What does this fold into?
Amino acid sequence: PEGVGLMLHNFEEIYRRSFPPCMQHLVSFQRNGTHLKNLGRTQLRPLLREAGLPLAEAMTWWRRELLRDIKVTQEVFDREHSYHIQHAYGRNGKRKPAYGWSCWKTLGFPMPQASEAHGCPFRALPTEQLEDLLRCFGSGPVSRTKEDSPPDVAQEQVACGLIFQERHPGSDFEAIRHPMQMARSKMEKDGE
Ligand code: SF4
It folds into this structure.
């Protein structure tokens, strides 16, 4: 519904309460002082667009976040990053907006190296770091498995569904299939 999408003014609240762990990891990784490498940026850009962040606000948000890294100057941002942000909104190239990858596709990414944050944290992070991430956003340790999980999903998607249920009691997700499933559901519920 209109008026409940992601905007700069509600970004922090939605980021903390409704982003799925993969998006929280990408944003917090960059904020913790490590430059988000290409695959991580490519993963996050369309998800923010799909969550509703308007292009002008996306430019402002990405500029602010990327310029935390002293190597990214305003000139570097204008030369390299603004094109890719506009591209995610279909404003250049083939003029088609980009869509976030499904959980299944995200789970298939190469494992991130030490200075990378792409992929699904339920698979990509060691247990201790995953628990730190979840705790940082208010969740306790979670089992990565569930006995009656659907046959067509990975255990990471089931674990993510359990986190969603823990954060949003009464929800009926068995497993998360797309990061937007989690973010949108909560935003739409808030907008009812
Ligand atoms: Fe993101 Fe999907 Fe992994 Fe959840 S299961 S953290 S939504 S990629």
User: Anything to note?
Assistant: The chain has ten helices and no strands.
